């Protein structure tokens, strides 16, 4: 398909917008249709321009993505600090109430202690001639004194506890205030980055729309066909790179096991290692992301037709992405960093489907379908793999 094709004279070459400086013009495309060789050469030029257009917004989009993650982390830290500050304040208030009650109880016992230990009572005890009366009066004095001492000690402890909790609550409130300022700053930075990314993405999207239309004109197809094909090519390259990385990791692990076995054989020692993974996670604040699970599923139902997949495959896709992301375009795995409806790892790989990968669930779905097609053949193939491993992944 990339080498040669017919160039009919009836193909319209008017584009959706004038070409920007540095990009192929529609005049270039028209001239290139004079021969197969010129057409092939212009296709190379247009594809190179397509790469540039997609890369042009990458930095701004990645900055917006990272800023959104930072804002999410700041919001989470603020929520934790607020919960702690509120809890400590409640505990401090309750402890203060208990301390005030204890102080009141000490005051209530003071007259009894005075009455039991006053000079008159002490004289009565000292001059009592009846042993039973002496013991009874000494017992009353001891009980009153012990009760007052216990109550006074309890009051002192309650006041110390209340003071400690107030100090902790004050420190927690200071930390909460500091984190609130940090969260506000992070939110503002994320909003600004999202706005900058939106501008960059809009420009890049305009360029890519024109370039796909130019490719369609050169190859006598349609912009939609060219876009799907280019996404497939890019995702296939990503999948191949992933396979190579997994093979290299497996080879390295095998080498480590062999080395460990050799050490065990020679020295009688041994070692073990373990790995882990993570499943789908939370959702950051939107910052321009359109989160619409029902709309995303409706788009996916239409999009799978281009792959020849039917309703059975669609149900597998529903199950797969329900488990991975809940079909949320801003779903983020906090442990791995996987992002979006298909949980691309890392998220920027979805730029192969369009510069708006961070915010547009449709673009994420286009990438995810191409990835599934390249890596597992069908959604049910991906779902079967997902359920065959733990932690689940595909």
Q: If you average the pLDDT, what whole number results?
A: 78
| Number of strand segments | 0
Report the helical percentage. over 70%
How many helical stretches? 10
The N- and C-terminal alpha carbons lie at a distance of: 30 Å
How much beta, percentage-wise? Answer: under 5%
Report Rg: 37 Å
- Let me know the largest β-sheet: none
Q: Regions with pLDDT < 50 over 5+ consecutive residues?
A: 1-18, 265-284
Outline type: elongated
Secondary-structure element pattern, one letter each: HHHHHHHHHH
- Coarse structural class: mainly alpha
List keywords for this structure.
394 residues; mainly alpha; 71% helix; disordered N terminus; Lysozyme-like_dom_sf; Lytic transglycosylase domain-containing protein
Write the layout of secondary structure elements.
Elements: H1 26-32, H2 36-56, H3 58-117, H4 119-127, H5 131-219, H6 223-267, H7 293-303, H8 311-324, H9 361-375, H10 379-388
């Amino acid at each position: 398909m990339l080498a040669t094709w017919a160039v009919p004279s009836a193909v319209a070459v008017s584009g959706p917008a004038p070409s920007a400086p540095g990009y192929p013009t529609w005049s270039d495309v028209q001239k290139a249709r004079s021969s197969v060789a010129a057409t092939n050469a212009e296709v190379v030029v247009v594809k190179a321009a397509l790469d540039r257009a997609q890369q042009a917004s990458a930095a701004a989009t990645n900055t917006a993505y990272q800023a959104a993650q930072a804002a999410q982390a700041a919001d989470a830290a603020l929520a934790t600090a607020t919960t702690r500050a509120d809890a400590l304040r409640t505990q401090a208030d309750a402890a203060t109430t208990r301390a005030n009650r204890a102080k009141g109880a000490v005051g209530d016992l003071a007259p009894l202690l005075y009455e039991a230990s006053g000079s008159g009572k002490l004289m009565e005890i000292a001059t009592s001639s009846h042993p039973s009366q002496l013991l009874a009066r000494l017992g009353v004095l001891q009980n009153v004194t012990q009760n007052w001492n216990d109550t006074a000690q309890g009051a002192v402890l309650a006041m110390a506890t209340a003071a400690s909790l107030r100090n902790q609550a004050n420190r927690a409130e200071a930390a909460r205030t500091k984190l609130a300022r940090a969260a506000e700053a992070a939110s503002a930075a994320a909003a600004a980055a999202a706005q900058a990314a939106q501008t960059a993405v809009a420009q890049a999207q305009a360029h890519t729309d024109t370039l796909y239309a130019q490719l369609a004109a050169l190859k006598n197809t349609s912009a939609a066909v060219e876009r799907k094909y280019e996404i497939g090519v890019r995702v296939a390259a990503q999948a191949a790179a992933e396979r190579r990385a997994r093979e290299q990791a497996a080879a390295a692990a095998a080498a480590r096991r062999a080395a460990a076995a050799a050490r065990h054989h020679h020295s009688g020692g041994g070692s073990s290692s373990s790995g882990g993974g993570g499943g789908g996670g939370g959702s950051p604040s939107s910052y321009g992301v359109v989160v619409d699970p029902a709309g995303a599923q409706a788009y996916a139902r239409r999009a799978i037709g281009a792959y020849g997949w039917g309703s059975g495959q669609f149900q597998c896709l529903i199950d797969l992405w329900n488990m991975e992301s809940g079909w949320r375009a801003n779903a983020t795995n906090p442990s791995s960093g996987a992002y979006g409806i298909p949980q691309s790892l890392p998220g920027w790989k979805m730029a192969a489907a369009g510069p708006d990968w961070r915010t547009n669930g449709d673009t994420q779905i286009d990438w995810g379908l191409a990835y599934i097609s390249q890596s597992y053949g069908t959604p049910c193939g991906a779902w079967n793999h997902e359920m065959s491993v733990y932690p689940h992944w595909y």
